[in-house]
Structure formats: C-alpha cells, structure tokens
Write a structure and sequence with these properties.
By secondary structure, the chain is mostly helical. The protein is built from eight helices and no strands.
Length: 161
C-alpha cells in the first residue's frame, strides 16, 4: 500500500490563505456592484455622468447664472444678464426664463429665439402653460413695436393653433 504524503502545517496554512484571498477580491467587486444597485447611488452617478455630457450647462455656475436671469428681471441689468447667459450657454431650456426673455424690448433676435424655443418646449407642458403661451404670443403679435417679433409671434401662434 502506498501511503499518501501527509501535508505539513505550512502547506495547510498556505492553502487556507489562498482561499481567503480569492473570497476577499470577490467582496471588493461586489461592494462596487452593491453601490451601483442602490437606486439613490445609481441616480447620483447618472446625474454626474449627464453633467459631463452637458458641457457648460453641467457646471455649477450654470444654475447661478440661470437664477441671475430670474433675479434681475425688471431691473436695468436684466438684458446684460440674459446676454451673458446666452453668450456663455446658449438659449436657456428653462420655461420661466424664456417667458421672461419675451419682455425684452431692445433685442428682437433674443425674443424671436425665445419664442421658437418656447414653441418647441410647449409639447412637454400642460394645457395651462400652452394657453399662457398662446395668450402671450397673441399679445406680442398685436402690441410688439418690432415687426420681426410681431411676425414671429403670428407664425408661431398659427402653428400652435
């Protein structure tokens, strides 16, 4: 009969340590996976990833500049605030900011762009916002001093109706 070689304590310990190491690495991966499985963490991760693809609008300064539009409404610095925002980020996608831009008297190009952007966004809005935009366009088509604003408002109003 052939006797099997008895394992030394050193070999037994080495084998046990190897098994523990493999399990430890698996836990590290599962921690990352568990973190991404948490809905809040996944949502935060996706928001941060979206900000990377948004370009300038993903920066923290964007929200400050957008709030500056709302806060400067009615003051003498409103037009310069809007121009700074448009130069930096392009036309806003914020419904409220676009409605405020419609009240600018000195820059027909900005107002016409705001009208077009509002008409693009109105599909996502409810009936109250739609009716509000229609009435605003009706007023602009009748009372705006600039002919370009009047014409743009009339065209967009007929497309909405």
């Amino acid at each position: 009969m052939v006797r099997e070689k008895k394992k030394s304590w050193k070999e037994i310990d080495r084998k046990r340590d190897r098994n523990r190491g493999a399990g430890h690495r698996k836990d590290e991966r599962s921690n990352l996976e568990r973190a991404l499985e948490d809905p809040r963490m996944k949502e935060r991760y996706l928001q941060e990833a979206e900000k990377l693809f948004m370009g300038a609008k993903g920066r923290p300064e964007h929200s400050k500049d957008l709030m500056a539009i709302h806060e400067s409404y009615g003051s003498t610095r409103f037009l310069s605030t809007v121009r700074h925002y448009v130069d930096t980020y392009g036309m806003p996608n914020d419904w409220g900011a676009l409605l405020l831009i419609l009240d600018i008297k000195n820059d027909s190009e900005l107002v016409c762009k705001a009208i077009e952007n509002l008409c693009e966004l109105v599909g996502e809005k409810g009936t109250v916002e739609r009716r509000g935009l229609e009435s605003k366009l009706r007023v602009l088509s009748l009372t705006a001093r600039d002919t370009e604003i009047r014409e743009t408002a009339k065209i967009q109003l007929t497309e909405l109706s």
